[in-house]
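Render Probable septum site-determining protein MinC in 3D.
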Amino acid sequence: MTVAIAGRAPATFEIKSANLPLVALLLKSADLGTLAEELQERFGEMPEFFDHDPLVIDLAPLGAADVDFERLLKLLSAYRLVPVAAKGGTEAQMREALKAGLAAAPEAALIPTLSQGEREEEPMQALPPVVIQQPAFALVVDKPLRSGQQVYARGRDLVVMSMVNPGAEVIADGHIHVYAPLRGKAIAGARGDTGARILTLCLEPELVSIAGVYRTSENPLPESLRGKPAQVRLIDDKLVMEPLNP
């Protein structure tokens, strides 16, 4: 016999499914001392790169190595990351992750990163995102950027109307437009957007990077591009520089 039980919806809460944009850390070594050094090298000068972003730790590249989760979480928190989950670990690793307060997230699918095969440009140690949100509007900077200054357009494009001097740094999760000489560092697609581009009216950078692939001034630009209007983009995992008006 079927029995119908009378009920009512709670007045104080509802439970619904939700999607949460995350960043992912692919942990390749249990050597947390080396990890601390590399995080400092990559993000030490960009204290606002992360803004308390929820993070999933992917343990799959690690093998069966033991992880000091308490120390790892403290290290990541220092960079304004909020570790919330782990995936891909061994049974023992996941057990320790749960003890440390992380949730198990085996269903978290990562966006494919750039291939690690041969390439002309060197890969930066970037943290690839699980979800890339398209920029809704651009951050516009009207004043020249001097050496030591940094601008980061989180989740959007960056438009710079004046010169980016040597020693200055412009970063965007989307595209970077510089309507003046670009002589400092420009990092577009900072969170893995391989479709991002760098466009400038005068290409003379110290460094350009898109989605972790970068080129420095140690590799001189062709004379056909130096000081000319140009764009930088990724094609087949390689940086391509070309005139804006070929």
